[in-house]
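Tokenised fold entry reproduced for everyone:
>
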Amino acid sequence: MSDRDFTFFHAPNSRSSCMLFLIEELGVPYVLRPVSLARQEHKTPDFLAINPMGKVPAIVHGETVVTEQGAIALYLGDLFPETGMCPPPGDPQRGALLRWLFFYGSCVEPAILQKAMKWPDPPKSTAGYGSYDDVVAAVVGQLAGGPWFLGERFTVADGLWGPALAWLTQFGLMPATPEIAAYLARIEARPTTARARAIDAELAAKQASG
């Protein structure tokens, strides 16, 4: 067993599908541990020992446990530098990578929740993400410099953002602006998109029949 082998805890057709896409893009070996949300396997004592939040995704690498999509993307990108998908410290793009990995969890998720729940806009001074419109404008502005989040270089940030934006636009939680639509078309064209969907479909079928 390699000292870089890791276990990926994943529930099909959930937020962890973003990390499935990312891991397949990295093209590295991993152990897949399916988690059935229908059977509440994410709430068992064994899984709660890995993530007390009872959420997927999660990875275990040796004695290290990593949860949260942005953190997993960064950890795996640094673990496999030969993929070229994670600008290392000292690379001029490292700062942008960190910004957009953390922007998703700290700004997009709360802004999207506000929109989905139809909550009134909070005062900008109290919301770390400013407003839903601010978040959308930031994403659109970044993608305008495409083709990928960091420009010409496909990175672990795209591994997170590609599937996430596809899901968000599908449910009307983010607008399919020309910039976002063009980005998603490029994500859709990647062979990994079909591969990750096939893995998810097979896992979902097994869980439904079992």
Summary: The longest helix spans residues 94-117. The chain has two domains: 7-84, 94-191.
